[in-house]
């Protein structure tokens, strides 16, 4: 484990560097807090709402897809060091392993889970007749709300 | 091939005495100082290069040609107030800069900047640490860097930093996958995780080594993917959505002032240098290059100076490309950024790994190489074709749901 000694020394040095910078700056810099300065920055206006606690679910989907993918990649690292000795067997095993990942990946892509276009497109791609949101019930088979639909739409729905 | 015990001859005896620790301390201190100075010079150089490209003068007051401008900025930030907003989570807010700067330094530890040299009578590699899991260390440290960005934005308790950090996390995670698959493209050729071994496999024999030994040509696709992903990992333009000033004020570090902001700034530009160094190590042979032919191979100039010179030259060349891209390309749109990462880079990289592995195995097992190449590329193209069909096309969506 002696290999990791320089890493440890470097980590200690960096922590010391950063801490000493903060302490030194604490002594050198002024301390004149006031209410406006301590308020969250909002481009000069008084903040009215707390920052949002809920985010579009897509960010979570990306994080979850990433974990699956990253676990797969971490398994590929040891494979990359030993596969020469495994021959065809190793190749087939790894191809199956990657395939098992790519099938759900293709599903994710096909339902638009990784599409970041305008929100309307994402909502409308969800399968099933009815989708409930906070504000309204959206039926993808119904004509588009907002009075922007034209006769072509009616024909497509009818067909 | 793969070692689990000490690789660096410094630790081969297994006993870490005072003189060994002294060598370690010297190497760490030199690397630390080198990084700080090179960040200083890089920020100055970047401003000067961009100024030249935009027909401006750039920094020209502090020191000769403005070379001390970054130092002046840093010293100024020491004398500024460190403000913490009332809405912030004070502990995490103070912790986040450490989480940003630590991976930036620790990642550089495994970069070989020279060959084997003798310091105080000890044989050692000219790199801070040669870990048996070097490539995984790159992955781990670039992954940890995300925490600094995410926690800084979250702990600020303010809208713009939160938006910036969530956006950043999405971007960094997406490109982390492409990034690590790009590294994998080299590992399949090299068959080892140690950075020192990867570099010594790309050693300089003659002028043909540029194409025959270095991995940039046999792993050209991973090289391109790595460069794109590394640019996105370091939040450099055209992937600088994290700090899109027009939309997000300053991104995740909006609420940071004074020296805490300076630490984030330092970490960001240090990451650019480290990523260039990683690209040099993996794809461009690291310190390998022609020595001075009129001196013997064991001469101090050939063992010490020339490898460091070649390493520095390659890193500076990559940094110049980064700045060039920065000056030329407009910022990407977020949906296109995510689409590029998830729909193209990741698939191509993962399939490339299998194709490259098949070709390597064909070489070892004496299969017909051309047949293997044909079958491997054919199946990969088929797999990518199926995946590509799965991607909803914009036109198709409009047709269905207009």
Please describe what this structure looks like:
The complex is a heterodimer of chains A (159) and B (402). Helices cover 61% and strands 3% of the residues of chain A. In chain A, a hairpin with a 4-residue loop joins strand 1 and strand 2. Chain A has helices spanning 5-28, 35-38, 57-110, 119-125, 151-158, and strands spanning 131-132, 137-138. With 159 residues, chain A is mostly helical. In chain A, strands 1-2 form a two-stranded antiparallel ribbon. Chain A has five helices and two strands. The model of chain A is unreliable at 147-159 (pLDDT under 50). Chain A has a domain at 119-159. Chain A is flat. Chain B is mainly α. Chain B folds into two domains: 9-332, no CATH class; 346-402, no CATH class. Chain B has 14 helices and two strands. Chain B has helices at 18-53, 69-78, 90-108, 134-155, 159-190, 195-201, 209-212, 220-233, 245-248, 258-283, 300-328, 334-365, 369-390, 394-401, and strands at 116-119, 122-125. A two-stranded antiparallel sheet of chain B has the order 1-2. The N and C termini of chain B lie far apart (58 Å). At the A-B interface, helix 1, helix 3, helix 4 and helix 5 of A face helix 1, helix 3, helix 4, helix 5 and helix 10 of B.
Overview in brief:
Chain A is mainly α and about 160 residues long. Chain A has five helices and two strands; from the N terminus they run ααααββα.
Q: Which runs of chain A of at least 5 residues are low in confidence (pLDDT < 50)?
A: 147-159
Largest sheet of chain A: 2 strands, antiparallel
Counting helices, strands and paired strands, the structural category of chain A is mainly alpha
Q: How many strand segments of chain B?
A: 2
Give the termini separation of chain B: 58 Å
Helical region count of chain A?
5
């Amino acid at each position: 484990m002696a290999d990791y000694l320089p890493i440890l020394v470097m980590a200690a040095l960096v922590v010391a560097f950063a801490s000493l910078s903060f302490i030194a700056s604490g002594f050198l810099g002024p301390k004149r807090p006031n209410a406006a300065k301590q308020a969250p920055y909002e481009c000069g206006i008084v903040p009215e709402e707390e920052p949002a606690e809920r985010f579009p679910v897509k960010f979570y989907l990306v994080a979850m897809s990433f974990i699956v993918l990253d676990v797969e990649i971490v398994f590929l690292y040891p494979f990359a060091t030993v596969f020469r000795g495994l021959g065809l067997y190793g190749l087939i095993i790894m191809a199956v392993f990657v395939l098992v990942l790519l099938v759900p990946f293709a599903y994710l892509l096909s339902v638009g889970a990784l599409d970041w276009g305008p929100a309307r497109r994402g909502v409308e791609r969800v399968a099933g007749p009815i989708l409930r949101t906070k504000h309204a019930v959206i039926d993808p088979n119904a004509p588009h709300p907002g009075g922007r639909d034209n006769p072509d739409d009616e024909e497509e729905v009818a067909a | 091939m793969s070692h689990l015990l000490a690789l660096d001859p410094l630790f081969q005896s297994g006993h870490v005495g005072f003189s060994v620790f002294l060598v370690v301390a010297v190497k760490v201190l030199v690397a630390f100082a080198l990084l700080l100075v090179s960040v200083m010079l890089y920020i100055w150089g970047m401003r000067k290069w961009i100024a030249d490209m935009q027909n401006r003068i750039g920094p020209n007051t502090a020191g000769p040609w403005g070379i001390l401008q970054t130092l002046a900025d840093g010293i100024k930030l020491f004398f500024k107030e460190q403000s913490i907003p009332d809405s912030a989570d004070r502990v995490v807010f103070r912790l986040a800069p450490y989480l940003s700067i630590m991976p930036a330094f620790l990642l550089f530890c495994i970069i070989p900047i020279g060959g084997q040299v003798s310091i105080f009578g000890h044989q050692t590699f000219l790199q801070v640490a040669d870990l048996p899991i070097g490539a995984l260390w790159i992955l781990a440290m670039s992954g940890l860097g995300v925490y600094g960005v995410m926690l800084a934005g979250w702990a600020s308790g303010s809208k713009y930093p939160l938006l910036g950090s969530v956006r950043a996390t999405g971007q960094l995670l997406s490109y982390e996958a492409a990034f690590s698959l790009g590294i994998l493209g080299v590992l399949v050729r090299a068959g080892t995780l140690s950075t020192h071994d990867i570099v010594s496999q790309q050693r300089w024999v003659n002028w043909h080594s540029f194409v025959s030994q270095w991995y940039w040509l046999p792993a050209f696709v991973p090289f391109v993917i790595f460069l794109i992903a590394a640019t996105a990992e370091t939040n450099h333009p055209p992937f600088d959505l994290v700090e899109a000033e027009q939309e997000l004020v300053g991104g995740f570090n909006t609420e940071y002032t004074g020296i805490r902001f300076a630490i984030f700034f330092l970490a960001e530009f240090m990451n650019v240098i480290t990523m260039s160094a990683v690209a040099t190590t993996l794809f461009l042979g690291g310190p390998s290059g022609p020595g001075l032919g009129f001196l013997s191979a064991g001469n101090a100039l050939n063992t010490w100076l020339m490898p460091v010179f070649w390493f520095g030259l390659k890193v500076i060349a990559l940094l110049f490309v980064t700045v060039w891209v920065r000056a030329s390309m407009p910022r990407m749109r977020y949906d296109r950024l995510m689409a590029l990462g998830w729909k193209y880079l990741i698939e191509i990289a993962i399939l490339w790994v299998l194709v490259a592995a098949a070709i390597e195995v064909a070489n070892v097992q004496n299969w017909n190489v051309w047949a293997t190449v044909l079958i491997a590329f054919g199946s990969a193209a088929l797999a990518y074709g199926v995946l590509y069909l799965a991607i909803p096309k914009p036109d198709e969506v409009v047709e269905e749901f207009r």
